[in-house]
Amino acid sequence: MTTTHRVRVAALSGAGALLFPLALALAPAAQAGPVQEPFGPACASLPTSGEGSAAGMADDPVATAASNNPALSTLVTAVKKAGLVDTLNNADDITVFAPTNDAFAKIPKADLDKILNDKEQLTNLLTYHVVDETVTRDKLPNGTFTTLQGDQLTTSQSGDVYKVNNSATIVCGDVETENATVHVVDTVLMPKS
Fold it and tell me: Which one, of 159, 160, 153, 158, lies nearest residue 187 by Cα?
């Protein structure tokens, strides 16, 4: 190898050393994890655009996002009555198992009215639907999670069906909000205590 050739190789190696970090800096950033897509039969009923859509809900904290979904109006009313709007909106990385209006309608009206008018009982019920961690579809088969209320709830999978406490079915899951993952359920979950 001649002296001139060695100088060229060294110069090119030095340039390559500079170009490699620059290429890394210009490369697109890797995602922190897989982006979760909503799943379940009721997801088809979400609007395709606007505040109530999956994309629209992702921009708002969870209680605000729920208020934009007409199927969750009873839940939103209950959250307001319990004084939990700020608590839910200011929490980080929570999961909410959100009962639909139809889920609340399964409770006899007299019983539901009693719960809605007893702040302590209502808070106990609502915080049983919230887990202080991110629970996405991959964690649902055979899961056990401690709720903000203090009791545990369980999740299971059979085929494409995901259940909570063997009583509620997730009808639209992995709906992301600014601070929470939401799994919409067809039955109100009742705490043990």
Answer: 153
Of 8, 159, 188, 1, nearest in space to 96 by CA:
188
Look up residue 93 and give its two tokens: 């990385």
pLDDT of 122-146, one tens digit each? Answer: 999 999 999 999 999 999 999 999 9
Edge to edge, the sheet with strand 94-99 lists: 130-131, 94-99, 180-185, 168-176, 161-164, 152-158, 143-146
Q: Is 161 helix (H, G, I), strand (E, B) or coil?
A: strand
Identity (one letter) of the amino acid at 44?
A
Which whole-number Å values give the CA distances from 122 to 88, 127, 188, in the listed order? Answer: 15, 9, 12
Q: Is 12 helix (H, G, I), strand (E, B) or coil?
A: helix
Domain spanning 41-185 has what CATH number?
Answer: 2.30.180.10
pLDDT in tens, 68-78: 988 999 999 99
Write down the pTM of the prediction: 0.81
Task: Report whether 185 contacts 97 (CB < 8 A).
Answer: yes
Are the C-beta atoms of residues 182 and 72 closer than 8 Å to each other?
no
